[in-house]
Amino acid sequence: MRLPISWALLSLGVLGLGTVGASSIGCGGSTKAGGSSDAGAAADTDMNAADTESAQDAPPAMEAAPPPQGYPATHPAMPTVANLGGPVVAAPKFIPVTFTVVPADPFVSQIQDFMSKVGATSYWAGNVAEYGVGPATGETPIEISTMPFTSNPVDDTAIASWVAQAVASNVLPAYDSNTVYVLFMPPGLSVTLQGATSCDAFGGYHSETPLAMAAAPYAVIPRCANDFGDLSGIDVVTGAASHELIEATTDPFPDSNPAYAQVDNKDFGWEIGLGGGEVADMCAQNTDAFFKPSGFEYTVQRTWSNKAGKASQDPCIPSQGGTYFNSAPVMPDTFSLNIGEPITVSGLKLAVGQSATIPVDLYSDSDTPAWFVGVQDSAALMGGAPELDLKLNKTSGANGDQLQLTIKVLTAGQFGLETFVLSSGATQQNLWVGTVSSQ
Question: For the packed helices 108-117 and 234-250, what is the interaxial angle rounded to 10 degrees?
Answer without folding.
Answer: 40
